[in-house]
Amino acid sequence: MKINKLLLLPLLFVSLVFFTACDNEPLEGTFITEVVVEAEPGEFVCMTGEVDFFAETISATFFSDGRFVISGQNTEGESIAMQVADGGLGGFNLTQGGASINGAVYIASGDPVPFTTAVSLGGSGTLNISLFDTDAQLVSGTFDFTAARPLLDDNGDPMVDDDGNVLSETIEISNGSFAEIPFTIEEGTGMPSDNFGCDVNTNNFDIIELDVDRVVIADVPVIKILATSSTGATVRLDIPEAIGVGTFEMVQISDGTELIGIYKAGPSETSLSSNPGTITITTLDLETGELVASFEFTATDPLETDPTIVEISNGFITVDYLEEDPMP
């Protein structure tokens, strides 16, 4: 590993020294030193806050659909992972939001709540790949990102300010670099078999858990999908299994057997249901359990006591609802 120390002096101070200092006079003043960490071949390094991070184990995979994932874990159990949709030479935005799958994650040792680059929490970042050799299967690059996660109260619920905004904490991942890391090339997309996403009031719904179940209510089989975000918010869809393929309107009040969408900003928040809402199902295989659909709905309080209106848009679902262990 190389450590380059760059001496940064204010221009005015440099000018004064140039014109007044004698050869035998010691230099005086405040010198600011910035440490730039550069990885040697086979290394993955960065700074997590003010602490050096040196990966003990490194993994990199390039999938046939273009997705590239690289991760590193140190001896203390901290881990960093980055993902981009179209791996190759160039710069990539790691900010998670909208329909982009690009992003980065930092996980502290022994702490199950990840820091992510979700824009809704104030995350951002960049990855620059300077070497991407698919013949030798080696990759090099640099990265920096700000990762965030919600602050939780004693009950494990996200804390909010007086305006209802989720409070978050951040960590700076800086001076990141990796050099000549071997990567594997694999068929497929690298996507989990179950996948879900949407925007909430134009912000990406930063999903960390997806539960998919088939239940029978009053002799009616229903596919229940519950997505939970890093802030504790949830998006739920109830889809009658016999609905078929096509575009269908959602109801606002259901006995558990009808098509409905429900949004909750947190465990103790009001359940806001679809009014109106639609789902377009392109695949629904009763034998394999494959469900592919897109959806959107406006969520409001069916009891009309809470004036909050939430727009759920750009929703997509790709799940196997008969699978025993859906992702988180």
TrEMBL record:
Keywords: Signal. Residues 1-23 form the signal peptide. PROSITE patterns: PROKAR_LIPOPROTEIN. InterPro entries: DUF6252 (IPR046219). Pfam families: DUF6252. This is DUF6252 family protein.
